[in-house]
Automatic annotation (TrEMBL):
SUPFAM superfamilies: 2Fe-2S ferredoxin-like. This is Ferredoxin, 2Fe-2S. Keywords: 2Fe-2S, Iron, Iron-sulfur, Metal-binding. Its cofactor is [2Fe-2S] cluster. GO terms for molecular function: 2 iron, 2 sulfur cluster binding; electron transfer activity; metal ion binding. One of its GO terms (biological process) is P450-containing electron transport chain.
């Protein structure tokens, strides 16, 4: 599936039926069902987490330093070919 620039990674994943990404709150950062891990080569292509997102990530079970909420990541041309990791326990 081709992601559309301007959509979020969460909406793209949900539309593609990616297991482990639910997006229950629609992207308003209160469900944590869009948690993913960001590979280093992708992290350098996206803005860092906002303070609000970082605060939410603090309560994610098994969060890692590279955890993000993919509802907060907007698809841009810079993400062409990017891959995101979904924790095994979410799938
Ligand atoms: S979709 Fe709910 S926090 Fe991301």
């Amino acid at each position: 599936m081709q992601a559309r620039v301007g959509d979020t990674v969460m909406r793209t994943a949900v539309a593609a039926g990616v297991a482990g990404i639910i997006g229950e709150c629609g992207g308003c950062m209160n469900c944590l069902t869009c948690h993913c891990y960001i590979p280093a080569e992708v992290a350098e292509r996206i803005p860092p987490a906002s303070e609000d997102e970082a605060a939410m990530l603090d309560v994610v079970a098994l969060a890692q330093a590279n955890s993000r909420l993919c509802c907060q990541i907007v698809v841009t041309e810079a993400l062409d070919g990017a891959r995101f990791e979904i924790p095994e326990w979410q799938g």
